[in-house]
Amino acid sequence: MDTTLPAVLDAAPSSSQVELIAAKQYLCLAVGRETYAVGIDMVREILEVGRMTPLPLTPEFVRGVMNLRGAVVPVIDLKARFGAEQAVIGRRSSVVIVETDHKDQDGPLVVGVLVDGVSEVLEIADQDIEPVPALGTRIPREFLQGMAKAKGTLLSILDADRILARDTMATLIAGHITH
């Protein structure tokens, strides 16, 4: 009985093959003077800033709603959501349509995220992502999944599920109404 393995099974994967397996794509977003990244798997599309209908009695980070091919989609100003002033809409501003991965009875949440710009898609290997430091982040620590070494700089990777958590958003909006 021949117990040798076929050459395909015997060969260890090269380091480039391992990197391809463990790398994910991230969309780079400009928010104020900072650049953040969000997993491309959450991004449905990128739009120019169009007409938004403001909603009364909502916090500043809720810029309004927009019509996305017949569906009403809330638009969240990411800069204001991070605790800064509202973003000023400029020629590079974009609305990134994201679908969160909420596993509740209401299913995924589709939200437009207003950003100052979108720059590129980067491939970042899992081993290049470090834990979020205890101090020194410009935005709330819980909004970050990790810090990645990419293109010679440190890039903050956003946790969009947490930033756009349905329960948290509902609480913030309800709290704003009572003020």
The chain-level structural class is alpha+beta
If you average the pLDDT, what whole number results? Answer: 85
Q: So what's the overall shape?
A: globular
Order of helices and strands: HHEEEEEHEEEEEEHH
Number of strands: 11
Largest β sheet strand count, sense and barrel closure: 6 strands, mixed
Rg for CA atoms? 20 Å
Summarize the structure.
The chain is α+β, with helices and mostly antiparallel strands.
Describe this structure in words.
The structure is a single chain. With 179 residues, this protein is an alpha+beta fold. It is 18% helix and 40% strand. It is globular and about 45 Å long. Mean pLDDT is 85; it is low at 1-12.
Key terms:
179 residues, alpha+beta, 6-stranded mixed β-sheet, 5-stranded mixed β-sheet
Write the layout of secondary structure elements.
Blueprint: H1 7-10, H2 15-22, E1 23-31, E2 34-39, E3 43-48, E4 62-68, E5 71-77, H3 78-81, E6 94-99, E7 110-115, E8 117-125, E9 129-130, E10 144-150, E11 153-158, H4 160-163, H5 166-177
